[in-house]
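Format notes (please read before filing issues)

Several people have asked whether sequences and structure tokens are stored in separate files. They are not. Every record keeps both together, in the order shown below: the sequence lines, then the token lines. Line labels are part of the format and must not be stripped during preprocessing.
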Amino acid sequence: MAKWKKDEAYRKRAREAGYRSRAAFKLLEIEEQFSIFKHAKRIVDFCSAPGSWLQVIKECCKIPDCSIVGIDINYIKPLSGVHLIRSSIDDPKLKFQILELLQKPANLVLSDCSPKLTGSKAVDKERQLWQAKMSLHLALQLLEKDGHFVTKIFQSGEFRDFITHVKQYFNVVKTFKPNSSFQRSPEMYVIAKYFQGVVNLINQDAL
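Then the structure lines:
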């Protein structure tokens, strides 16, 4: 299927399903493959705008009193039952704001962060790698033991180094490219499960 036809097909499906963007299908595919929502009760979603992942989270979280926090520097139209924080992911106060809302450590941290594309592949990959590293840095501080972490990452020269770093903290680490992603897109998703809980070993300089 041509790129524009595939894009339009997923946009149409998103409209019909009531999702705010076609990105919803990426998270649905991740859940189908990896069951990341099983037992998840406290969920954090970075770079949430416009909110399609938050919609999927609400659908997939079957545990009563599920607590969901969405974060983005851009405005997100409110969703019932979802806490929203308008903030950059590098704000030093963000971790405390999230924990105040959750009351306890998170079971699942998600990040679909992507920079505003400049047209320079090298620049875009560098910026997205920084977002993935920041998401990991926050996840390590927010997650409870055996929690899960999912992040987008563009394939680049540092892709494998990032995977190796994630493996230091999680017992199972997989990479996945959803069918709803374009084949030519550099985006991949890192699925990291069963956090070891070694917060005291975090080396900020390594991130």
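For reference, the curators noted about this record: Residues 200-207 have pLDDT under 50 and may be disordered. The two ends are 38 Å apart (CA to CA).
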